[in-house]
Amino acid sequence: MRGVKVRDPGGPEVLEIVDLPEPVAGSGQLLVRNFAAGGNRADLLQRRGLYPPPAGESDILGLEFAGEVAAVGEGVESFARGDRVFGLCAGGAYAELLLVDASLAVPIPSNMSYESAAAVPEAFYTAEDGLFSLGELTEGETVLIHAGASGVGTAAIQLAVEAGARVIATAGTAEKATRCEELGAALCVNYRERDFTEAVDELTGGAGVDLVLDLVGASYWDRNISSLRVGGRLVLLGLVGGTRAEADLGVVLRKRLRIIGSVMRSRSIEEKSEVTARFRERVLPRIESGELKAIVDSILPFEEVRDAHVRMEENLNIGKIILRL
């Protein structure tokens, strides 16, 4: 089989498509013939040598897949050869075959393409988990969603609006801001032109938002804290804006804030299985019905993986970049 390996840590030029041994399904696993893989910023970090896979996981890039079951391991009764499935993996999705625990596989709705399905897992799992399980967002609250035009951002806007929350988003271009508002954001701030704290203050009458869903990190810390109301919550999901910030803990105390961090990749199979089960129950039916949509920016052939990384690294995408295998 073919798969993408990183020759040495570095830029997109270090990505190579190489021939690899075919994996064999073990107990409780599925062997999936992969037809589409979603790109994530974690892939960029791993390529640079900054985000190694968890111990025992594949060092092939790629955290979400969509394909067809090629073989089932011992003890698997929920899927059969030929079933169309998608889901999360801790590595291995940039390959023609991959192994995944059967509890993490989800049937692809009949009306979804492989490419659309591959755009779902990281975006919707992360957004649903961050907004509701961790962030406890409820109807009538206001949420500030950073990187609103990203895969997670576009999913989070839709989920929050559907739950009856008011959304303020941020994005880096007028086109991205418009797309966020088309998805339901009450306002999307172009952060290159306006400080989002001003918009939060204006839209909330100075009260602040109930929840911040942040994929940026350190560079937004002070403004995130300033934007939260008393008793607000900050859910931190990404660190593209840096890992270190100087914090005024007195503000955290006075405003009785909750700061919650989360990653998906390094969670145990059991935890990921719970997230997957919640997704299947709460979100998948609305994706199948068309109420929620996976936003696909572009679909590139597997052989153009370097171009996909360049596009993602330059932050040109609205929604997910998909590799077609």
Structural commentary:
The model has no long low-confidence stretch (mean pLDDT 96). The chain has eleven helices and 15 strands. Helix content is 30%, strand content 26%. α4 links the parallel β8 and β9. The strands form three sheets. Strands 3, 4, 5, 6, 7, 14 and 15 form a seven-stranded mixed sheet that branches. It has a six-stranded parallel sheet with strand order 10-9-8-11-12-13, with helices on both faces. It is α/β, with parallel strands linked by helices.
Q: How many strands appear in the DSSP assignment? A: 15
Low-confidence stretches: none
Task: Report strand %.
Answer: 25-35%
How would you sum up the major sheet? 7 strands, mixed
Radius of gyration: 20 Å
Q: Which structural class matches the secondary elements?
A: alpha/beta
End-to-end gap: 11 Å
Q: What spatial form do the alpha-carbon principal axes imply?
A: globular
Mean pLDDT, nearest integer?
A: 96
> What string gives the helices and strands in order?
EEEHEEEEHHEHEHEHEHEHEHHEHE
The number of helical elements comes to: 11
Helix content: 25-40%
Quick tags:
26% strand; 6-stranded parallel beta sheet; 7-stranded mixed beta sheet; alpha/beta; single chain
